[in-house]
Design brief:
This protein is an alpha+beta fold. It has helices at about 20-30, 75-80, 90-100, 175-180; strands spanning about 30-35, 40-45, 55-60, 65-70, 105-110, 120-130, 135-140, 145, 150.
């Protein structure tokens, strides 16, 4: 007799999102925002910012798009061409306003180190305008965007890529509570529909 040993695995989601947030992600996924003044290339979702990074909260308000977002302090320093750690926060706000406000990016404030570990679900974007290209992290829930300014990004997949799908539907008479209560000693028979 062959005895198989199984280990129980619990899968816990790192993040759950509402239907409203999912529809916002689906709206911008694989697209590029272009209102002839700024371009926003939507990339991947990001849940945790990582430790040791300093963030500045910004608001993006431009024709066809509004959102709350975040810029890394290192990126601000690159854009401004100077280290800001010894500068007064009001002066930093002034510098950011002078350089980025004409493009719709407005300074809100520094994010505390403790709060930086609990930033909301963000979508990584590449923000471009006439003289600036930077990585901007937009809070997904806050995105309000005009769909007419969205255009699909060209696909980067090779033309000869083959797709194979295998799908076997099945039915179960068990409820979700009964499924979650199953142990490693229970036997569940699954057969094709």
């Amino acid at each position: 007799m062959n005895i198989m040993k199984y280990d129980a695995v619990n899968i816990i989601p790192s993040c759950t999102i509402s239907n409203e947030v999912a529809s916002k992600v689906n709206l911008v996924a694989g697209t590029r925002f272009d209102n002839q003044a700024i371009n926003i290339d939507f990339r991947q979702l990001k849940l945790n910012s990582g430790e040791g990074q300093d963030w500045i909260e910004i608001s993006l308000v431009h024709m066809g798009v509004e959102a709350k977002g975040y810029l890394q302090v290192a990126e601000i320093e690159r854009l401004l061409g100077l280290e800001i750690k010894h500068l007064d926060k009001e002066y930093i706000a002034y510098l950011i306003t002078q350089n980025l406000a004409p493009h719709g990016v407005h300074y809100v404030g520094f994010v505390d180190q403790t709060d930086s570990l609990n930033l909301p679900l963000r979508i990584v974007t590449i923000f471009e305008c006439e003289r600036i290209t930077t990585t901007l992290y937009l809070d997904v829930e806050s995105i309000n965007i005009d769909g007419d300014c969205l255009e699909p990004k060209p696909q980067a997949l090779p033309g000869d890529l083959k797709l194979t799908v295998s799908w076997t539907p099945f039915e179960t008479a068990l409820t979700t509570h009964e499924l979650s209560a199953l142990s490693t000693d229970d036997v569940v028979i699954v057969y094709p529909k």
